[in-house]
Fold this protein.
Amino acid sequence: MDIRRAKEVYESGGNVTDYLRQARGQSRNDAEIIEIAYDLQAGSYSSAALKNADRLESYADQVAAILSPCLRDGDVFLDIGTGECTTLAHLERRLSSSLGRMLACDISWSRLCYGRAFLDHAGCRPVDLFAADLLHLPLQAKSVDIVWSSHALEPNAGNELAAIEEILRVCRSCAVLFEPSYEKNSPDGRARMDRLGYVKDLPGAIAAAGGDLLACIPIREPQNPLNPTHAYVIRPPASDSANTAAWACPVANDRLGEIDGFLYSHESGLAYPVLKGVPILRKSAGVLATVLDANTTIPA
Ligand SMILES: C[S@@+](CC[C@H](N)C(=O)[O-])C[C@H]1O[C@@H](n2cnc3c(N)ncnc32)[C@H](O)[C@@H]1O
C-alpha cells in the first residue's frame, strides 16, 4: 500500500489519482485509487461547505428544481457517492418531508464519518449511510425509487456503462445524475477530464444500458467552468419487480442478516463489518465466515 506517499503528495498539493495511476502503471482510476484519493481529503469538503455555504445553496436550489418533479410521496431515495453529505444536507431541506427512506453511500468510510457529523450539524432527517462501490451496490434489483448523484460517477472513466447498468438495476422510477459533460465541455476542459480520468459519453452509456435519457440540463455557474455539470434525467427500462431496500451482499446479492454485529450473507458466506454504525458493504470488506451460518455452532 502506498498510502504514506499518497498522503505526502496530497499534502504538498499534488494530484493523488495522477500519482497513483503512474505509480501503479495504470491508465484508469480503479476503486482503490478512488478510495485512497477521496479518503485522504476527508474533512476538506465539510470545512469548505461551512466557509462557502452560498455556492452550495445556489447549487442545491438548481438540483431541487430538477429533482423535485421526479419525486413522489414515500419514495426511497439513494445518493450515490455522497462524500461528506455536504450537497445532500443542503438539498435535504428542499425536498418534500413526505419523501420515504433516505440512503447515501460512498466508497470512502472516512468521508461518511464526516458526512454523519455534517448531517447532524445541519439538523437533517435520518439518512442511512453505508460504504459501497457504486459499481456494486449492496441492494437488490428495483429496491429504490430515485437514484441521485452529484459528481460521483466523475472519476470512473472506462466504467461508464457498468455504472449506469448498476444504477438502473437498483432503480425503479428515475435516476437524476449531476455529472460533468465531456461532450459539452471546451477543448481545455476535455483535456483536463482526460488527464484526471473523468467519465465521458454518458448519453451513450445510458442508451447502451437500456435507459431513456429524458433530459440533459446544464447547471448555471458550475463551480469549475472546466468541469461543467449537467443533470442527466434517466428513466430505467420498464420492470414489474420491486424489492425492499434492505442490505444485500455485493457479491451474491442475497439479503444480509445481522449476526453478532456483522451483516452476513448465507449465499456467499461473507460477513461485512459495521464500523461506527456504518455498514462496510464492499466486496473487499467481506470476510469468509461460514461459521456464522445459522446451522453452525459457534465455538465459545
Ligand atoms: C467530487 S466528490 C462529490 C461528493 C458529493 N456527491 C458532493 O456533491 O459533495 C465524488 C465522491 O464520489 C465518490 N465516488 C467516486 N467513485 C465512487 C465509486 N465507484 N463508488 C462509490 N463512491 C464513489 C468519492 O469517494 C467522492 O466522495
Summary: Residues 3-40 form one domain. Residues 31, 34, 38, 45, 81-83, 86-87, 106-108, 111, 133-135, 150-152, 154-156 surround S-adenosylmethionine (CB under 6 Å).
